[in-house]
Amino acid sequence: MIRTFVALALLLGAARPARPQDSAAARPVSADSSAARLPAADRSRLAEAFRLARAVGGRVWPGWGRTPMPVLLVTDSAEFLIGHRAPSPDFTSAGHDSLLGSVWTRRPKFPSSLRATFPAVGGQPTIVIGTAERTGLSSTAWVLTLMHEHFHQWQFSRPGYQAGVARLNLARGDTTGQWMLDYPFPYARDSVQAGLRALAAALSPPADSSRAAREAQVPTVITARDRLLGLLSPSDARYLEFQLWQEGVARYIEYEVVRAAASAPPPEPSFRALPDYEPYQATAWRMGERLRRELAELAPGEQQ
Q1: What is the pLDDT of residues 116-141, one digit of tens each?
Q2: Orientation angle between helical segments 280-298 and 249-262, nearest 10 degrees
Q3: In angstroms, rounded to a whole number, what is the distance separating the alpha carbons of residues 177 and 168?
Q4: Is residue 54 within 8 Å of residue 16, measured between CB atoms?
Q5: What does pTM read for this prediction?
């Protein structure tokens, strides 16, 4: 059901990071150097994610392009930390990669299927993610997932974020953040399901796709949204609004990034040479079709 809220939020919401210096930092490391133990495919995917963040981040969302992007890649044999300002003492320098900058490594601590952003290293919001193979994603989808998680880094870095989350008063004693996933939202309640379907119907694209037609649709969307919120307790309503902002907008960012990427300079040849590479233009079309299917499932008979 979070996926449901995310699909709705998309239409409602219609700098390279500093790197630590070390004794090996000035020594370039080629892709096949023993100091750069990243598999070639992972190295290409990470380089594309950093390139894409620099190329379109500031255009997609003001200020996002200046957000640091530390990434902890979890493989079966090691974890690789890239773009972090101050690695914890359990990391060992793997040298300076010519594409990625300073690379640090340690033994695996996190599951290789993980896709999350949290203060995993040194208290800094860090993207912790398994390889494309372990997370079940294509190379292009994996890069876009990093963009989603990178937007969380921007959200978490906003002044007052932690205080604002605390004021929601939804954690019920949890101090780990797990409540964001485990909150007992009334997903299965019939009235909530009906409210979601009504909101999905209000969000259905009009037959006339002009800007004026879409703007004329906004009051209907707002009315349906307010009716849905009226079906919820105050705490449930706060949770819905929180998820629309944190997860819904992050997914909206995926759509905006892939659209921007489709008109930006192409990826490096090493990324385009990966066997599961899909051009961003094709990915943008496929993601749009998926969103239309999700809305159609919510409001059958309303889609044109």
Answers
A1: 999 999 999 999 999 999 999 999 99
A2: 140
A3: 13
A4: yes
A5: 0.83
